[in-house]
Design brief:
Radius of gyration: 22 Å
Helix content: over 70%
Strand content: under 5%
Distance between the termini: 15 Å
Number of helices: 3
Order of helices and strands: HHH
Number of domains: 1
Number of strands: 0
Largest sheet: none
């Protein structure tokens, strides 16, 4: 292998960077969606209940959200971990092709 090949900087095009950024954002969106949608639904339900009953208690909104997020993580945590591991493995497999 010539010395110039060893010392040459690894390059990546702007298109490849944008493609990787899009993949990262999509994976983040898929991983955050169950938690965010659950807290949105619980928060809306609790807010509706509080406005109808005139009860303004902070813990009434906080505790159900914590329980809901815990349940979502319990049920979808395996899928989330599998998605993240698959993306990371795919990224490491792509690196040699991206850097040439």
């Amino acid at each position: 292998m010539p010395l110039s090949a060893v010392l040459s900087p690894l390059t990546i095009t702007d298109t490849e960077v944008m493609h990787l950024a899009l993949q990262v954002m999509l994976v983040c969106l898929k991983l955050c969606a169950p938690i965010l949608l659950t807290t949105l639904a619980i928060g809306f339900t609790i807010s509706l209940f509080q406005s109808m009953t005139q009860i303004q208690e902070f813990t009434l909104a906080f505790v159900p959200k914590v329980v809901g997020v815990g349940l979502v993580l319990l049920f979808s945590g395996n899928w989330m971990l599998h998605t993240l591991i698959t993306f990371t493995q795919h990224l490491f497999e792509q690196l040699p092709a991206l850097l040439n």
